[in-house]
Amino acid sequence: MVTRLRPTRLEYVVDGVRLRSQLSAAALERMGDEPAQRKAALDILKAALFRGRMIAKERLENGAGGIETASLLSGVTDEVVSALWDFTTVHVFRARNPTEGERLALMAVGGYGRGTLAPFSDIDLLFVRPYKQTAHAESVIEFMLYALWDLGFKVGHASRTIEECIKLSREDFTIRTSILEARRLTGDEKLAEELMRRFQAEVVRGTGAEFVAAKLKERDERQTRAGASRYMVEPNIKDGKGGLRDLNTLFWIAQYLHPGQSIEKVLQLEMFARREVRAFIQAFDFLWAVRGHLHFATGRPEERLTFDLQPEIARRMGYGDRGDAPAVERFMRRYFLIAKDVGALTRVFAAKLESEQVKMEPRGISRFIPGRKVTRKPLAEPGFVEVGGRLDVDPDIFQADPTNLLRLFKVADHRNLDLHPDAFTAASRAISLITSAVRRDRHAARVFLDILARGRDPRRTLTLMTEAGVLGRYLPEFGRIVAQMQFNMYHSYTVDEHTLRAVGVISEIAAGRMLEEHPLATQIMPLIVDREALFLAMLLHDTGKGGAGGQEVAGARAARQACERLGLERSKIELVAWLVEHHLVMSDTAQKRDISDPRTVSDFAAIVQSPERLRLLLVLTVADIRAVGPGVWNGWKGQLLRELYSATEAVFRGGRGSDAAAALRRYQENAAYDARVRLARAETSAEPWGDAMEDAYFTAFDDAEVLAHARLSRAARDDKGAAAAGRVRADLNAAEVVVAAADRPRLFVDLAEAITAAGANIVGARVFTSRQQQALDVFYLQDITGAPFGGVDPRSLTRLADQLAAAARGEPHGREPRRQDLARAAAFAITPAVMLDNDASETSTVVEASGRDRPGLLASLARTLSDAGLLITSAHIGGYGERAVDAFYVVDEAGDKITDARKGNSLKAALLADLNAGEAESARARRTNLQQARASSAR
Fold first, then answer.
1. How far from 543 is each of 326, 463, 550, 552, 939, CA to CA, in Å?
2. Which of 425-453 are b and which e, b meaning 16 or more Cβ less than 10 Å from the residue's Cβ?
3. 520: closest CA among 629, 704, 643?
4. What is the CB neighbour count within 10 angstroms for residue 474?
């Protein structure tokens, strides 16, 4: 880490006396030439401002604190603005004997009024007049504003009388808040003092309740806009939950409830513990440092800590790699721990500040209603009381029995009560009472498992436990992933937040509230015998991230340790450990392998071994994918999981001693026979086409789809050998485009290129070839936003179908693949990889290529395979943020696997060259002044 610099004095950075002397000299030298005077003055002020900012930047990069840097920048701005005022009122528009109406005060308001400023933040100024605008005041204000704009400032400004300020403050809480933080920069001192005196007497006094209510409502709306979770992996450090604005909200409340006292004085009150004050200052300092680095790194008022900026900010703040933990992940974990502290501090400080006020509704820091009597209602659970609709505790309850630290949250969940901030604070301060003995206590384990597996709202309760520090203390395996971030674009949340969301998804499925989105998971949930094992596996499934031996193995090891400490029976321990170790298997099999291939299902069934494990793994997989982030789960993935589940279930129905591949073939044969009979009954002319299609085809589509495909294939024979049709599948969150054409080499390549050229993303593809040598390729497509392609503009889907029919006939599509902004993803260093597997299929070689995702990658890889003389029999597309993982089932021209080592090595080299082309394109997109970091491959 960078060594901390000692604070510097403002006069060492910008000498205000010397600055004014320079301005006066420049004005006198150019007397009579106003344009020349103005230009000289601006040059002097620009130099002072530039020097001040560069010193602040250099000091920040060498370890100066965030608060000190923000204060220094504010001080530099103060000197420049006040010197400009003096120049304007002395040398440009001097009023030698100012009248009452020509009095004018200049005040800093908003964040600038607080005395902290980020490098490229706006400055908010208030020109205060005694009454109506005069020509002199108008001239001064206009000259000042134009000069400030020419100096590069973004200025928010207002010119008002004291009466107008008071009136508008009563009507508008934003204006009220800005004047709350107002401080005089220069000008008429008595005018500024009169404004603040009247503001306190006529606006602030007696209005604490309404101000706090307004600020909290404003906070909730802001967090909803910026992202309701404080653990989103690209946080907004200013407006996001757990960011600077949350701390500023506490400032405003403190100032409003303690008028006339600075925040430093408020924090010195006896009601605040030293540890909490220290955490408050550390959080404020850290966030200001990050904000300063963000502004300096980008040269603009950037408030989002985006992926492309995170490695650079980590470097500037002195973080380095440590073992397997890269610098960027260490830095971001620190950020999220600070955000977590901000959340806890918000609760604690609000509880202290309300010692003279009583809240009306229990929602975090809620509404303040003065003068209402607090009633304490004892509950049936000893030591617990209800206070104003919230759960509180008697003194020393945790010291008497540390298990009460867990019971607190169980009672809150059972009675659907919010925690009183005093109870939350007491629990946070008492977590050291959770010792090894408490972790092994059977009564404590039962309370914890009741919360997790049988609670009303386990996600909400476990989140509260995490924020109080109780969950990570009781379950150290979970504590190690609190605030942990994976540096990739796949995950939207930190590991702990993702985990708790996944637990919440299972709880929703169990309650039957997700029947429409997850019909199979909801249907099988009542059949699961051991729900405790399911919830424990979900809570522990990512505890191996960053561990020795890989995520799955390390996770299983951590799960065994945790379950043994909880005192579970051996069979349950092993079941939880197995689920954790294999929690990615079902997702990988469904998305990366051909489910119609008997070998795929037989291998998967051999891993799973029982219907109970299959049910557990299905629900676990659904919740895991669903909780990754917005847009990651879609109906296409759900369809693949359901097909894999059904096929594996059919294997288990065949009996324990049966051949799994043979059982699946029988399942496919029976399903195909029944489907062909129904097709022939529906349309006799389609019978030959149905007889020519492979058995596996009929398990993937329903009767209506099969009939539509038969008709499309007949149309293809009648229309120059190819036909295509598209429709939006809302259930799959994708458009489905079916192409029927005479089979030929490079057909799949031409179709993939045409799709890419049309601006669509391929999220899934099924490839079938009949015994009549007619291909039936089915593509599932989304647009660049992740919505079904053509959902907004149906004509684009019709055009694409026509273009695909033309491409299938061999006609050129004539359009280049679209380009996209790669700068954000360029921060990730990705190592491409290619794997050839001859064991995953009985008939084909599986080629899996992994590398940086980009438009046209699938088509490029398919072209390389075709150039190598290979036929693609199946393609499976996987996207994990910045990384794509595409799997192809291929055979050579004789219909055999790739067995020649030299041919295999040559193919690998060609595919790696394709993948590395994406790396070269990414390098060109990356801004040269920004750091790059290794992308996490953990999922």
1. 18, 16, 11, 9, 12
2. bbbbbbbebbeeebbebeebbebbbbbbb
3. 643
4. 25
Alpha-helical segments (H) within 188-240: 189-199, 208-226
Q: ∠856-860-864 over CA atoms, to 5°?
A: 175
Note the pLDDT of residue 355.
47
Look up residue 277 and give its two tokens. Answer: 């004050």
Residue 344: both structure tokens together: 């806890």
- Alpha carbon of 891 to those of 193, 421, 694, 851: distances in Å? 85, 65, 17, 23
The pTM (predicted TM-score) of the whole model is 0.87
The 774-782 sheet, strands edge to edge: 722-729, 734-742, 774-782, 761-769
Q: Say how many residues make up the chain.
A: 939
- Beta-carbon contacts of 485 under 8 Å, excluding residues fewer than 6 positions away, are 233, 329, 332, 333, 336, 494, 495
The H or E element that residue 254 is part of is helix 244-257
Contacts of residue 171, Cβ cutoff 8 Å, sequence gap at least 6: none
**Phi-psi group of 389: left, alpha or beta (phi > 0 → left; psi -120 to 50 → alpha; rest → beta):** left
* Residue ranges of the chain whose pLDDT lies below 70: 1-5, 96, 223-230, 260-264, 266-272, 350-374, 655-658, 813-824, 918-929, 939
Taking only the tens place, the pLDDT of each residue in 410-434 is: 999 999 998 988 899 899 989 999 9
Q: Would you say 535 and 470 are in contact if contact means Cβ atoms under 8 Å apart? A: no
Query: What CA–CA distance (Å, rounded) separates 40 from 22?
Result: 10
* Nearest-10 crossing angle of helices 421-429, 404-414: 150
Question: Who contacts 484 (Cβ-Cβ below 8 Å, separation ≥6)?
Answer: 329, 333, 336, 494, 495, 496, 545, 546
Beta bridge partners of 376: 387
CA atoms within 13 A on the CB side of 680: 11
Judging by beta carbons within 10 Å of its beta carbon (0-12, 13-18, 19+), is residue 218 exposed, middle or buried? middle
Cα 690 from Cα 706, distance rounded (Å): 8
Percent of the chain surpassing pLDDT 70: 91
Classify 376 as helix, strand or coil: strand
For residues 925 and 923, give the distance between their C-alpha atoms in angstroms, rounded to a whole number: 5
The alpha carbon torsion through 598, 600, 605, 608 (nearest 10 deg) reads -170
CA distance 922 to 831: 13
Burial class of residue 758 in the structure, from the number of CB atoms within 10 Å of its CB (0-12 exposed, 13-18 middle, 19+ buried):
buried
- On whether the CB atoms of residues 19 and 87 are closer than 8 A, the answer is no
d(CA 205, CA 182): 17
β 384-387/390-393 pair status: antiparallel
Residues above pLDDT 90, as percent of the chain: 63
Question: Which residues on neighbouring strands pair with residue 101, listed in sequence order?
Answer: none
Closest to 82 measured CA to CA, from 16, 26, 149: 16
Going 600 to 603 to 606 to 608, the CA torsion angle's sign is negative
Question: H or E element: which one contains 159?
Answer: strand 155-161
Q: Is the dihedral of CA 549, 552, 556, 559 positive or negative?
A: positive
* Look-up of token digits 């409340």: 253
- Give strand pairing partners of 387: 376, 390
Type of residue found at 907 = L
Indicate the SS3 state at residue 846: strand
The tokens of 139 are what? 């001239």
Distance, CA of 915 to chain centre: 27
What's the rounded Cα separation, in Å, for the pair 887 and 833?
12
For the residues of 866-924, what is the DSSP string, one character each? HHTT-EEEEEEEEEETTEEEEEEEEE-TTS-----HHHHHHHHHHHHHHHHHHHHHHHH
Give the integer Cα–Cα distance in Å for 490 and 318: 26
261-277: b (≥16 Cβ within 10 Å) or e: eebeebbeeeebeeebb
